[in-house]
Amino acid sequence: MTAAQVRSFAEERRAEIRAKAAAIGIDEAYISRLVDCFYARVRTDETLGPIFEEAILDQWEPHLARMKAFWNSVALNAGEYSGRPVPVHQRLHGVTAEHFGRWLALFRETLDQTAPSADAVELFHGAGGAHRREPADGHVRGFPGRVADRRSSLRRGRHESRVQRRCLFHRAGGRDP
């Protein structure tokens, strides 16, 4: 397969993903609204607000832009995000699985309240099979402080880390504050 054929296939696949997302109401405008609403909730949350304020300081606009690029890449295959979110979050001190559970709960609420359709909710929830549920022991692979889990995550390779990034969004829900 030539480079031109690969590009053509990738462009066709991206257009197909965007068309399917648009058919259920997912586009860049919705993702922007979702991210803005979700982080407005995070900032006012008594548990998560202080953690995010300490980590982000006065850099909320760049953070929101990064998160929009991330979710555009996940939901629309936009190719806008090229970072590595798991290592960034692993560097946070004092963050526990309970914090992650709260993050997911806020995200779920926001998704459920803002999604333009039930299919849109399912798109975000349905990305990762087993990743949709909290593990029985409360440990979340790739979450800060889970060294053994980080090692096993590395062994699984890049594909699963992409799935995990998608699931972070797809497992959470929420709506306008």
Helical segment count: 9
Structural class: mainly alpha
* Order of SSEs: HHHHHHHHH
Total number of beta strands: 0
Query: Strand portion, in percent?
Result: under 5%
Mean pLDDT: 75
CATH topology: the name is Globin-like
Main sheet record: none
Q: What is the chains' assembly state?
A: single chain
| N-to-C CA distance | 49 Å
How many domains? The number is 1
Describe the fold and architecture.
It is a single chain. The C terminus is likely disordered. Helix 2 packs across helix 4, helix 2 crosses helix 6 and helix 7 packs antiparallel against helix 9. The chain has a single domain, classed as Orthogonal Bundle (Globin-like). It is mainly alpha-helical and 177 residues long. Helices cover 67% and strands 0% of the residues. The relative contact order is 0.15. It contains nine helices and no strands.
Question: What's the arrangement of secondary structure elements?
Answer:
Elements: H1 3-23, H2 28-44, H3 48-56, H4 60-76, H5 85-90, H6 97-114, H7 118-125, H8 147-156, H9 158-170
Helix pairs in contact: 2-3, 2-4, 2-6, 7-9
Can you describe this structure in just a few lines?
The chain has 177 residues and is mainly alpha-helical. It is built from nine helices and no strands.
Keywords:
single chain, 177 residues, mainly alpha, Globin-like
